[in-house]
Write a structure and sequence with these properties.
mainly alpha
Length: about 140
Amino acid sequence: MFLVGATLCALTIDFVGRRIWFTAALGGSAIFLFLLAGSGLDAPSDLMVFGSGAYFFAAAAAIGVYLYTPELYPTRIRAIGVGAATAWLRLASMISPLIIGTFIACGLHWVFAVFGGIAVLVAVIVPLFAIETKGEVLEYLSP
């Protein structure tokens, strides 16, 4: 699913724009995560279908972030900006297993519900605050 989501992102993000793309990808991921949390996790097929759907949309958003992040920094500090963003990503990757472990103690469905809630929150924030870079000259966006 990652390959399909990543390919779809690469082929369409320049046509639809970054804000719309991230909002749709995060919203789609949230829907599948909530379906997974609500399924009761009784059947392996639920995990396969809903988990794959969530992963498809999450992959589409993740690949888009690697395109979008460098566009936000001026050329002269782009490497530093992307490096700092990647450092935050690595820090979150280290902390997230501790957070997930806490929610697993409450029930596995809470893990998926929390991730779905975060995806909804970000899907609401992106259209309000994200800078649209579609069709813009990067030197004018961040001189």
